[in-house]
Amino acid sequence: MSASAEATVLISHEVGLHARPSVKFTKLAKTFSAEVEVALAANGPWFDAKSIVKVMAAKAPKGTMLHIRAKGDGAGEAVDALVELVRRDFDEGADHVRTA
C-alpha cells in the first residue's frame, strides 16, 4: 500500500500564489519523489504541484485555502514541507514586500 498524506493551509502572502511563490512551491515539490497535487477547493480540481504553469495558472489570491495531497514515497514529508513553505509566506515575509 502506497503512503499518502494531505493538508490544507491558508495563503497569507500579500499577493497570493504569484510568480516567485509559485516557483518556490514547485521547486520544493520537485524535490520529493511522491506525486504531489494541489487544489483551491477540497473537491478539486486537482493539478500537478510540480508544474509551474499549472500552479501559476491557479492565480490563488491571499486568503485562499490551498489543499495539498501527495502519494508515494515521502508523501508525508512532501506535504509537511509545502505547508510550512506556505505558512512562512514562501520565505517572502513583510520585509520582502515592496511598498510604493
TrEMBL record:
GO terms for molecular function: transferase activity. The keyword Flavoprotein does not apply. It holds the Pfam family PTS-HPr. Keywords: Sugar transport, Transferase, Transport. InterPro entries: HPr (IPR050399), HPr-like (IPR000032), HPr-like_sf (IPR035895), PTS_HPr_His_P_site (IPR001020). Residues 4-93 form the HPr domain. General (non sugar-specific) component of the phosphoenolpyruvate-dependent sugar phosphotransferase system (sugar PTS). This major carbohydrate active-transport system catalyzes the phosphorylation of incoming sugar substrates concomitantly with their translocation across the cell membrane. The phosphoryl group from phosphoenolpyruvate (PEP) is transferred to the phosphoryl carrier protein HPr by enzyme I. Phospho-HPr then transfers it to the PTS EIIA domain. NCBIfam families: PTS_HPr_family. This is Phosphocarrier protein HPr. It comes from Mesorhizobium metallidurans STM 2683. The lineage of its organism: Bacteria, Pseudomonadati, Pseudomonadota, Alphaproteobacteria, Hyphomicrobiales. The gene is ptsH.
